[in-house]
Amino acid sequence: MTFFVLLNLVIYMPFHLFEEGIGDFPKWMYEHKWLPYHMTHGHWMANNIFLYYPMLLAAVFLFLANRVFVCFGAGILIWGVINFGDHFFYTLRDKRVSPGLFTGIIFLINSVLGLKNFMFSSAFSGIQFIGGILIGGVLFGLPIGLCVVFYQFFERYFSKQGGNVRV
């Protein structure tokens, strides 16, 4: 299961973010009402580096630290399934490929294999699986909420003003 959990992190950064970036995901998020503001690419990347990725890393570290926290590894895998589902839903709804769909498919395959591995392991329990579903939902939703909360902070340092990027 550890391989699949770690592979989701490798897929996410840099591959998934690259695919989303070339598809102008910040604009996509704004157009689809995921965020109340349109972010620059620098601002969007700051959100990923300082909000999304640390939460994923924390879950992975807990999972690796102790078998009691196997639900955090399952949460990373559930997060991968949710990430795919989001891109797939909007691809169908918009009748055009959502930026991130192709790496989302890789998330799905990897996560399903990882969850299968988990379900047939001695670490599996219904409580751990339900915990993983809840953690996966939090890993998907909380960073989006934090993007809104920390918008002004990141806007201050990672947005364009007068043609220059403030760093």
Structure description:
This protein is mainly alpha-helical. The chain is built from 7 helices and 2 strands. It has a two-stranded antiparallel sheet with strand order 1-2. It is globular and about 50 Å long. The N and C termini lie far apart (39 Å). The C terminus is likely disordered.
Short description:
77% of the residues lie in helices and 2% in strands.
Largest beta-sheet details: 2 strands, antiparallel
User: What structural class results from the helix and strand content?
Assistant: mainly alpha
Helix content: over 70%
- Share of β-strand residues: under 5%
* Counted beta strands: 2
* Number of helical elements: 7
Question: Ends: how far apart?
Answer: 39 Å
Oligomer: single chain
What is the number of independent domains?
A: 1
Q: Which strands sit side by side, in order, in the main sheet?
A: 1-2
Order of helices and strands: HHHHHHHEE
Q: What's the mean pLDDT score?
A: 91
* Contiguous runs where pLDDT drops below 50 for at least 5 residues: 162-167
Global geometry: globular
Q: Nearest-angstrom radius of gyration?
A: 17 Å
